[in-house]
Amino acid sequence: MNVGIDYGRGNVKVVSNNTREKFKSYCGEAYTLDFSYGKEEYIVTINDKEYFIGTLAEKEGMSRGFQKQKIDKESTIPLVATGVFLASDKSRVSVNLVTGTPISDYRKQQEKVKEYIKGSYKVNIKGYGEKEMKIKEIYVVPEGAGAYFSQVLNNEGKEENKELSKSKVGIIDIGFKTVNLAMFENLGFVDKESVTLNHGIHEAINSIYKRLSRDTDITLVEAEKITTGPEYERLAKKIKNGVNKFWGNKPYKMFLCGGGAHLLSKYFTDVEVIRNPEYANAEGYFKIAQMIYNSKKTGLSSTK
User: Fold this and answer.
1) Residues 137, 33: one domain?
2) Do 8 and 25 touch, CB atoms closer than 8 A?
3) Is residue 103 situated within a structural domain?
4) Among 81, 192, 236, 243, which residue carries the largest CB count within 10 Å?
5) pLDDT 10s digit of each residue in the chain, 304 long?
6) Domain that holds residue 182
7) Contact 174, 257 (CB under 8 A)
8) How far is 140 from 152, CA to CA, in rounded Å?
């Protein structure tokens, strides 16, 4: 089975042939509860160790995963294994997985991510049953590549948009902690024209919380639900300044994607928003998996 998973610092998004799932990237070691739980509140046992995942972990005051990098001993395996579980409709499955890392970490972390995630897992999610999963193959790309290939390939992993594939395309991928500016041309990643900006939606959320907490008892979780305010406009200006500084005012075809795209799109009037922008990377990772593992290709090209 081919699976694309975008395990971000805000949410985990996973796409397979007929599944699309999302849950918050909260994770922590489980303990006994005295109440029931609901949708996206997962009690997950992985190789005999139990975790709270998603909104249940959030309610219990646990932290989001991947605060510093995508290899996090407390979060990576629980969140990825939960995502793969939800993407599969079989009790025993062998998985080819494609995922991404921030551009700034890509060169030094791609092999480490492969080594860390590959393996066999016995996973039980309370209320969903048990599955035996083997992550057999894993391919790691720079974040933003998924969004690009979501526009270029079809669901079988075959080139569909030949005009776009021959063009120079910039992806502005707005995440929870970072923004990736990824450049592509002729189906290849242009490394020297790609960068990670240290901005993210969390900046606006934290600023909203600080402003409102002076006069109210608002929590950070409640602040995250506020989707308008001057804080988002200030963040958009920072990102636009970063885009202009790095790429300049060049006539590239540009796309906006990521979990922050719907919050900031009104400030990027000259950039096309990808349909379902939060799922764009996961959808593209799945299409890359289809391209690589169904046709036995070696992977994507890259220029320095």
Assistant:
1) yes
2) yes
3) yes
4) 81
5) 999 999 988 899 999 998 999 999 999 999 887 666 656 689 999 998 999 999 899 888 887 765 556 676 678 899 999 999 999 989 999 999 999 998 988 888 889 999 999 999 999 999 999 999 999 999 999 999 999 999 999 999 999 999 999 999 999 999 998 999 999 999 999 999 999 999 999 999 999 999 999 999 999 889 999 999 999 999 999 999 999 999 987 767 999 999 999 999 999 998 999 989 999 999 999 999 999 998 765 556 555 5
6) 162-281
7) yes
8) 18
